[in-house]
Amino acid sequence: MSELHIVVCGSIVPDPLQTLAPTEGPSGWALKNEMMLPAVLDPWAGHALFEAAALAKANPGSRVWLVSLAPKAKLQQVMMSVSQKAPFELVVADGPASGFTDSFETARVLAESIKGIAGLDTGKLLLFGGWQSASRGSGAVMQMVGEILGVTEQFQGVDKLAVRDDGSMEVKERIEGGAYQISVVSGAPAVFGWATGELPEPPNNPQTGMQNMQKNMPALMQAKPADLSGSGLRLSEVAVPQQRRETRVVKDVPVDDMAREIVEWLKA
Amino acid sequence: MNTVLFLAHTECDGTLHKSALEALTAATALAGGLGHTLVVGIIGAEVTAAADSVAQCGARIYGVSGPAFADGRYASDLAAAEAVAKACDAQIVVAPATSRFSRALPGLAVRLGGRVDTHLSGLEAADGQPVARRWFYRQRMEGTLTRSERPWVLTLDSGCAEPFSGAGKAEVEALAVDVATRTTVSGLECPSADQQTIRPDARVLLVAGAGWTKKQADGAVHVDAAEETILTFLNATKSSLGSSKSLVDISGEGHAVISFLTHMHQVGQTGSSPRHAKGLATCCHGEEPHVVGWRFIGERRAINTDAGCGWAQGKCDVLYVGDAFAVMKKVNELLG
């Protein structure tokens, strides 16, 4: 087994149970009451973080960094719970986590943050992140971060990563039709955009949380504002589809009649 | 004259996927609307048959072929795409949002010094400018966007345009591309024909909600019966099987689970948003993320014991208020 330097890119998103509405402000499109919405770690980035922690534990001497572009006040709230899940070192770029932010600008800021990590050995680098986000969902940021950093072995929709004794890695990537593509990469550095992986969410460990926050609070406090102004992206309109169906409610009807109607509909 | 490049990769049999033909329709219309030249680039082990299948689009066709391009792999696909884009000096690149190109083409934007927008739901020329539409926050709101940067790489989701039709005899200009990579594709792991999953070509999506694993009227759970009922229906109809996230996740909470459901079946906010002509939801309840899973389903029906279910009201066409165990058992009997 070998030492790995695993950098996980992940930001925060509104709690999925919240009703979202767009609004246009002086600085462009945003979510209505965005700063008031409860936030969570992006689900796919969360899977990537848990996989990174498990991989680091299995490879002694490995380190895990979580690099996040997000408003630091909201990020701090989310970190109170995420920090209890797995040990990691936090790197923060203070900026919007909005889904309306340009994916390239996001990638550029993340790549610059990663370049600034002290002690990171790019020869041992495994760059993790979600294959998409629950905000913009571009599925493009990780590839661009990797490309900017010169990492050209890349995988997306990853559900399994197995490190072999010789340092090579077998990767299962989701492709169309519920199938997987199996690949082998000779070793680090490489980029992995995770789907759900195969690990359950770790239970909270308050001790891990306290150790993490002792290191990570300074990172939050010292986070520098990120500049994402270099984009020519213009959103002319954003709207929630208002389509509402006239639902016909069938009740107090015998089961046989319901079933017959469903079968006729299926066969039509 | 400026160039719109349509990029495609071949399937295992050397043909182009339907989503590629749809993207070609969009690229052709965009090039026409902007007054740009359309160029086609095809990547694969062998590209002649694919080029012939789109010969009547009237575009110059570049091909990058050989064993190194048979499988989807970031380094080789990106090297091929970069070579074609540079050969025709593309200002706009349009490609299907397949898993293969979704992996590789964001990197193309970096190499070309351009930008990328992915998973588009629409693309057109308006006032001499390309205008794209895409979803934000997992299909919860749709936006219209433009960009000043060029080259602009665009990937289009399937089902957003009519497939191009126009076969003939094409002339392909071959480009030689060197590939340096440390990755070897060793194969595919495909679900068997009887294994239940999201089937892109299925007409019907069956969504299984958490109610299948909850206590029933007799105070007991009946997961065995639920599994048998769901599998019998799927075997009879060859439908896609989707699941709510709660049903997939409850294994971590120590609850009974349906053995064949995994995160691969998840639809909604943290899963897929499949496109099927019909959808039948069973034992689901109404929360905001579920709306996302329904977004692209045509005709929608639901079976639920709650007549006021928020999952169904205003979102499905017909709500059957009843016990899904009983109704689906009878449905299976009628399906034979």
From TrEMBL, chain A:
Keywords of this protein's UniProt record, alphabetized?
Answer: Electron transport, Transport
**All copies of domain Electron transfer flavoprotein alpha/beta-subunit N-terminal, residue ranges:** 38-202
- What name goes with this protein? Electron transfer flavoprotein subunit beta
UniProtKB/TrEMBL annotation, chain B:
Q: What does UniProt give as the signal peptide span?
A: none
Task: Return the protein name.
Answer: Electron transfer flavoprotein subunit alpha
Q: Does the keyword Ion transport apply?
A: no
* Membrane-spanning ranges: none
A Pfam family cross-referenced in the UniProt record is ETF
Keywords noted in UniProt: Electron transport, Transport
Which intervals hold domain Electron transfer flavoprotein alpha/beta-subunit N-terminal? Answer: 4-194
